[in-house]
Design goal:
Layout lengths: L4 E2 L1 H10 L4 H20 L4 E7 L4 E11 L10 E3 H7 L8 E5 L7 H28 L5 E9 L3 E5 L5 E5 L14 E12 L2 E7 L3 H11 L1 H4 L3 E9 L3 E8 L6 H6 L4 H9 L4 E6 L4 H8 L7 E5 L4 E6 L1 H8 L4 H10 L2 E6 L19 H8 L6 H5 L3 H8 L3 H14 L11 H8 L1
Helix pairs in contact: 2-4, 5-8, 9-11
């Protein structure tokens, strides 16, 4: 057997099937041989394994200390002077003898064990590389080719032939794939089962929609527009809360694009999932109002302690607020963080008065303060208690009283008293 082992062909074979670079491969070879030598000759034996990356060969050398013949105690770490001078006549006691170790010194069983250990180490290294690679890719987009389609999951291979798993629960209901199709998803998690990494990808995660928007909308990618929150009912409807720190940029318009040009490709990728892009506001009432779009609300009653909101709207708006399958109101609740209940506003539209009609009595900023809490009409204002109006609008008590008094004069309240609380009835009728 040859004194050196040429590894070029062996390495090339590994390279075709393994995600492992040349130098780590050589380091594994070195460690495997050192471990085998320590097992064969003992842990104290002084061996050196040299791997030539360019030539693809491996050389093993052993160093032993020269001692007097009668002082020889360990033939693996020491060599008798009489034996040393056979190698080099001028050797002296205390010097080291460096010899090449022939692979013929290894038994067939030891060679087979070396090969098996090498395969095991390469596989372990490959698994570790895959785990570390995808551990840092969680939340990122990944594109791969469908390799196998099963009832409960789809196996996808990435560009490095790493296997990814798309469970049925992470698929959009309308997703239909066959072997060879290209698939885009987001890396959801990386688990380790019996030392084997299992990479799960998702097309239903809110992060998937977020990453798609970063890809398709330059302002989002550049950070000019921030995505505050994303909620989805995969394949049906999604709501995206966006905010711009540049007053010159309309975040909703920038995300949607001219005639929906920017959002269309995302909608197609999500199997025609309806996407509502909503401008963020710290005003909870206004946020809920926007979240319930396309429905238009008349008024809102908030319970901030219990995180609930009673929303009043005209009868023809109720179905819009709830949406198909209740998706719209469910997503609005998730987006706002409030449990939303919708109530029919039985007040006849033509008998109500728009707040703008009072512009001759009050400054526009006063009217805007009421509109910011979801009160666009006279009746939507008086349905809320005086104390709550003062708190929510942050207006002076005198200003709120003046507005209520003006509305009281303008409307005939008798036929609407059943809509109000007892305390509010007393206040309005005095």
């Amino acid at each position: 057997m040859e004194e050196t082992l040429n590894l070029t062909d062996t390495f090339t074979e590994f390279k075709e099937f393994k995600s492992i670079d040349r130098e780590p491969m050589m380091k594994i070879l070195q460690d495997v041989f050192l471990a085998a030598l320590a097992k064969k000759y003992g842990p104290d034996a002084n061996f050196d394994v040299t791997v030539n990356v360019d030539r693809g060969d491996l050389e093993i050398t052993r160093s032993r200390e020269i001692v007097e013949d009668e002082e020889l105690e360990d033939e693996y770490t020491q060599i008798a002077l009489s034996e040393a001078i056979k190698i080099e006549p001028d050797f002296e006691v205390g010097e080291e003898v460096v010899e090449n170790v022939k692979l013929s010194d290894f038994a067939r069983r030891e060679i087979l064990a070396l090969r098996q250990n090498l395969i095991t180490k390469v596989m372990e290294y490959e698994k570790d590389v895959i785990y570390k690679k995808y551990e840092h890719k969680i939340g990122e987009l990944i594109t791969g080719e469908v390799n196998q389609v099963f009832k409960k999951e789809i196996l996808v291979h990435d560009e490095d032939d790493v296997e990814l798993v798309l469970p049925r629960s992470e698929q959009i209901p309308a997703d239909k794939y066959k072997k060879g199709d290209t698939l885009t998803a987001v890396v959801a998690r990386v688990d380790v089962n019996s030392s084997t990494p299992r990479i799960t990808i998702s097309r239903t995660s809110p992060q998937f929609l977020e990453r798609l928007m970063e890809t398709e909308i330059p302002e989002v990618y550049d950070g000019l527009i921030t995505i505050k929150n994303v909620v989805r009912t995969p394949g049906e409807r999604a709501k995206v809360l966006v905010e711009s720190y540049d007053d010159r940029i309309d975040p909703v318009g920038a995300c949607v694009g001219m005639k929906g040009s920017r959002i269309h490709s995302i909608v197609r990728e999500l199997r025609n999932e309806n996407i509502d892009v909503i401008n963020y506001t710290s005003n909870t009432s206004l946020l809920i109002s926007r979240a319930l779009s396309p429905a238009k609300i008349s008024s809102i009653e908030l319970d901030e302690e219990n995180k609930t909101a009673n929303v009043y709207m005209k009868p023809d708006q109720v179905s819009l607020a709830i949406g198909k399958g209740g998706y719209n109101i469910k997503l609005a609740s998730k987006l706002s963080g409030y449990d939303i209940d919708v109530f029919r506003d039985d007040i006849v539209e033509e008998e109500d008065v728009d707040l703008n009609e009072f512009s001759d009595e009050f400054d526009q900023w006063v009217i805007d303060a009421f509109k910011n809490i979801g009160c666009d009409t006279a009746l939507s204002v008086i349905k809320i208690s005086r104390e709550e109006l003062i708190q929510r609008t942050d207006l002076e008590e005198e200003t709120v009283d003046e507005v209520l008094a003006s509305i009281k004069k303008d409307l005939d309240l008798k036929e609407y008293l059943h809509l109000f609380t007892p305390n509010l009835i007393i206040y309005l009728t005095n």
